[in-house]
Amino acid sequence: MISYTKEGAKKNALVFILFIAPAFILFTLFVVTPVFQGAYYSLFNWKGAGPLDKEKFLGLDNFIKLFHDKYFLTAISNNIKIVIYSLCFQLPVAFIFALLIGRKSFTGSILFRSLYFFPYVLTEIIGGVIWKFIYNPQFGLLTQFSKFFTDAKNEIALLGNPDTAFGAIFLVIFWKYIGFHMILYIAGLQGVPRELEDAAVIDGANGMQVIWNVILPSMRNVITISVFLSVIGSFNVFDIVWAMGQGGPVHSTETLVTYLYNFGYKRFAFGYGSAVAIVIFFVCLVFNLLYQKFIVGDKDK
Amino acid sequence: MSKVIKCLLSLMMLLVSLTFVSAKGQEEAVENGPVQVEWWALSGGGGAQDPSTEYKKEIVAAYEASHPDVKINLTILENEAFKQKIQVAIQAGTPPDIFHSWGGGVMVEYAKQGMLRDVTDFVNNTLSKKIGLGALGVYGYDGTYYGSPYDMGGVVFWYNKDIFDAAGVTVPTTWDQMLNAVDKIKNAGYTPIALGAGDKWPAHFWWVYLAMRIGGIEAFNAAYGGSGSFKDETFVKAGELLLELAAKEPFQTGFLGSSYDDQARLVGDGTAAMELMGQWGPSVEANNSTSGNGVANLGMFTFPAVSGGKGDVNDVMGGGNGYVFGKDAPDEALDFLNFFLDKDRQIKQIAIEGIIPVVKGAEAGLEGNSAKLAQAVSKAGYYQLYYDQFLPPAVGEVVKDAVAALLAGEATPEEAAAMVDESWQMEK
Asked: Do B113 and A50 touch (CB under 8 A)?
């Protein structure tokens, strides 16, 4: 029994501490501590083992080097591109799919839902490997298709060309996560009261007006979550890019996390890698704080 | 109220004591049971019934039968997966007792971190009696040995004789003949050269070999020793010659994104005429080919000479496969490796993995292309370990990046050489 009197408060404190303790200890041990450790390592020229002595201390050199590296700038701009493309193409298309197949059940609506959702069930690596086969310039589906229609030895090598590789990989990201956002929107649509729509239609609103003025505002919460997950996910993309070309060719499809792996882990440059990790951490943290303050917090008003 | 706390506290106590019990149980098992030896080896890429894995299991069974007090725990890993997993183990300070290594700079890095066991006495007293010091040297640094190779070969051209015949091409002995051969093979409708530049290391072989033929051992020693640099003419010229070849578009479409497996498949299926690859080339070609057997008429030739080059045409770039010992490896691990490095077992491995054996007497088991390759290696006056293994890991990665950028047209030969030199100056 928890008592709410002043005398009870002291007794309760112990209970609260006991309840919070497991989560607090685990969170500190596996989330907070590593962040500070990483920040500390990022100031050194450290190769992953051995003591962090004074000769290895670099100050902020790792960060300076980072922002002068053209491949790091490619990585950051690729992440930003993924965010923008996701928000401008992936989420709107997912919304349209949700409107088309999520509102009424018709023959095949379950089939379409399953088909669009299926890629999300696959792990990223499997998805990446499947598409690597599809894109294979010698025997891949895409090349076979083009050979069938153009009747020439027309091999398409999207992943082998630094100019097209990123687009080809984004297409896979699009394919992979669209089902997830669609399901979120379908769930959100079910919470939109029919009466509101009917009322709008009686008042003479056309389809677009109903969507824009009734459905979208009612789905605000779902859209907020979907945008948030999409942006955070975009900054952490790794598996698909890795499976399809390890950030190549010539680092053209590098993202922040693959950059960390290629330039920190593979080169035994753990100090430098930690600096990359700290940058990723701050990007996500700043976005999170801004989003919480201006978008999520806003809804209470 | 207090009941709740008592319950929680006793639950926590119980959990804590359980942990102690189980930890203690593990220790006891190690003290009383057989000595455990962790062995991490690479897979031969042959799928579920990988012959090289099956053979390693046989060896383990044979050793355990005669040594009941030793238990060998074999872990088979695919190449890239191994590189990642070993990195984590080294970071955690718990390297396995015996693990795969290509020697060179990466091994030296592990040794500097104190993660390898010094086995100099074992190498001097036992292994050097049956394995040449040249091969063992790849697994040593500054007079200290950390392990031993079981395979030591070279990178050569593997070519499809039928395609060469169809295109009317003979084996090129100079770089100019190579360029001509590429034209003729292309005109005959084949892909002249398969290259998995997406994995980067297959492409860096080309640049290193060209540098060896142009500048010889002197150029490398000058750059490595500090009297010259990787920006020297030799390394720039190597880039220029490689671009000269690339301008003829001799590689398969999309080679910048292709993996080494793609490269092996193209040769194994008879689509591409040749590849520049190590002693394992033919067996990987066979494993990746549609038929499972590779091409019928496979030949080999060594890297052609470059006109005006100072390098000896007999010099070989290559490397081996071998094992090193983790810092806590028991003596039983050393004994097992000695058992593994046996003449008859090496001869069996020739057939199974296509190795070039290192144990004296086992070379009698070589035939055909492998025998030719072993001969080429033994004739080499200057034997260069692959740069990506010989140089420190950070520099090795830059060499591979530089060559990929060169082939993609994103770096000039001067820029590529400068990239390598800059990272070498920082790391040496």
From this structure: yes
Pairing of strands B147-154, B316-325: antiparallel
Interchain pair B198, A246: CB under 8 A: yes
- Report yes or no: B273 and B133 within 8 Å, Cβ to Cβ: no
**Closest Cβ–Cβ partner in A11, A18, A161 for B256:** A161
CA distance B10 to chain A (A): 12
The pLDDT profile of chain B, 428 residues, written as one tens digit per residue, is: 456 556 555 555 555 444 444 444 444 445 567 899 999 999 876 666 778 889 999 999 999 999 999 999 999 998 878 988 998 898 888 999 999 999 888 899 899 889 999 999 999 999 989 988 878 888 988 889 999 999 988 999 999 999 999 999 999 999 999 999 999 999 999 999 999 999 999 999 999 999 999 999 899 989 988 888 999 999 999 999 999 999 999 999 999 999 998 999 999 999 999 999 998 899 889 888 888 888 989 999 999 999 999 999 999 999 889 999 999 999 999 999 999 999 999 999 888 888 899 998 888 888 888 889 988 888 888 888 888 888 888 899 999 999 999 999 999 999 999 999 999 998 87
Query: Rounded distance, CA A94 to CA A112, Å?
Result: 13
Closest residue in B to A11 (Cα) is B1
Cross-strand partners of B70? B35
Q: Is residue A259 part of a domain?
A: yes
Rounded to the nearest angstrom, the minimum Cα separation between B373 and chain A is: 30
Residue numbers of the domain that contains A134: 67-300
CATH superfamily of B156-316+386-427: Periplasmic binding protein-like II (3.40.190.10)
CATH of the domain at A195: 1.10.3720.10
Given a contact cutoff of 8 angstroms between Cβ atoms, the answer to whether A280 and A254 are in contact is: no
Query: Which chain B residues are within 8 Å of A137, Cβ to Cβ?
Result: 252-254, 257-258
Burial category of A274 from C-beta neighbours within 10 Å (exposed 0-12, middle 13-18, buried 19 and up): buried
Q: Establish how many alpha carbons lie within 13 A of residue B238's alpha carbon, considering only the half-sphere containing its beta carbon.
A: 32
**Region at B294 (left for phi over 0; alpha for psi -120 to 50; beta for the rest):** left
Nearest chain A residue (CA) to B94: A49
- Verify whether the Cβ–Cβ distance B255 to A160 is below 8 Å: yes
In a domain, A162, yes or no: yes
Please report whether residue A61 resides in a domain.
no
Closest-CA residue to B101 (of B117, B86, B91, B113): B86
Domains in chain A, number: 1
Structure tokens at A255: 């993202």
Q: Which of A11, A50, A245 sits opposite B1 (nearest CB)?
A: A11
Chain A residues at the B interface, defined by Cβ less than 8 Å, are: 1, 11, 14-15, 18, 47-50, 136-138, 155-162, 165, 245-246, 248-251, 262, 265-269
Q: Do A160 and B256 touch (CB under 8 A)?
A: yes
Do the beta carbons of residue A18 and residue B8 sit within 8 Å? yes
Geometric angle at alpha carbon A24, from A18 and A27, rounded to 5°: 155
| CATH number for domain B35-154+318-384, candidates 3.40.50.880, 3.40.190.10, 1.10.3210.10, 3.30.70.2210 | 3.40.190.10
How far is C-alpha A161 from the chain's CA centre?
Answer: 25
pTM for the model stands at 0.83
**Complex ipTM value:** 0.81
Domain layout of chain B by residue ranges = 35-154+318-384, 156-316+386-427
What are the structure tokens assigned to A53, written together? 């002595």
Chain centre distance of CA A241: 12
Q: Do A233 and A177 meet the contact criterion of CB atoms below 8 Å apart? A: yes
